[in-house]
Amino acid sequence: QIFPDSDLASRAAADEIAALIRSRASEQRCCVLGLATGSTPVRVYQELVRQHQDEGLSLENVITFNLDEYLPMAPDAQQSYVRFMQQNLFNHVDIPAQNIHIPDGTIATEDVPNYCRDYEDRIIRAGGIDLQLLGIGRTGHIGFNEPGSTADSITRMVTLDPVTRADAANDFGGIEKVPSHAITMGVRTILQSRRIRLLAFGDHKASIVQRTIEGEVSTDIPATYLQSHSDVQFLLDPDAAALT
Ligand code: GLP
Question: Probe ligand 1: pick from 37, 80, 82, 165, max atoms within 8 Å of CB?
């Protein structure tokens, strides 16, 4: 779907999430959301906060699983995704703290495999992800599933692509300070979500959006795996959609 601008696309995503939260609440059920970081989803979170403050939207029945986190990363560090989520969403809504799950960037390397298996188990125990929000990296990564990630990959430690590290260099004050690794949900974890909504804005995303939607499904562009999902939508602004 191509929207007149990124604000309207963000608003549409937030409206769908809010409607899902409300419909689950009316059935006294939880709503399990998969959440993304980066600049792209910020206005979705702003709109959810606005609806919480102005329209009585409650997130008490919401359980969240974030896609990824740098490794190593202290939760209170400037660039941590824990901090990002607190600042952009969690500090401003009524989601119970125990319902929030973000991969732990302080985990020791030898404990990572067990930790990742447990992250997968926690998603299953929550009932699976109802709606996964995604951005897309210029390498075609979703979460931090870089080129080479397979369709059956699950939550694990990954090595970041040099393009991804270059794109994050500003946030870290230099590419050499960007962590070389991360923990990410896998492609399979993402594809198991019932709905997937990917947002992409700006002309720097136009080429990867075109290759993701129109290209062959390939491990070279992990986002192409989304083509096989039965309920996936791309919400684009005109610049990101320019080449499709
Ligand atoms: C990071 C995140 C991804 C995100 C990507 C794009 O790599 N791990 O989940 O999609 O950045 O970021 P932005 O939205 O700032 O372009």
Answer: 37
pTM: 0.98
Q: Separation of 38 CA from ligand 1 center, angstroms?
A: 4
| Residue 202 alpha carbon, nearest atom of ligand 1 | 16
Interval between CA 180 and ligand 1 midpoint (Å): 15
Of 12, 27, 28, 18, the closest CA to residue 55 belongs to: 18
Query: Is the CA virtual torsion 77, 83, 88, 91 positive or negative?
Result: negative
* pLDDT digit string, tens, across residues 69-108: 999 999 999 999 999 999 999 999 999 999 999 999 999 9
Query: What burial letters (b/e) apply to 91-113, b meaning 16+ CB within 10 Å?
Result: ebbebeeebbbbbbbebeeeebe
Given this structure, which CATH class describes domain 6-236? Answer: alpha beta
Cα–Cα distance list, 168 to 98, 106, 163, 216 (Å): 29, 19, 9, 28
Active site residue 146: yes
Q: By three-state DSSP, how is residue 70 classified?
A: strand
CA distances from 1 to 153, 183, 199, 202, 240 (A): 28, 30, 10, 15, 11
Instruction: Single out the catalytic residue among 47, 69, 120, 146.
Output: 146
**pLDDT bracket for residue 4 (50, 70, 90):** very high
103 Cβ closer than 6 Å to some ligand 1 atom? no
Determine the atom of ligand 1 nearest the C-alpha atom of 40.
14
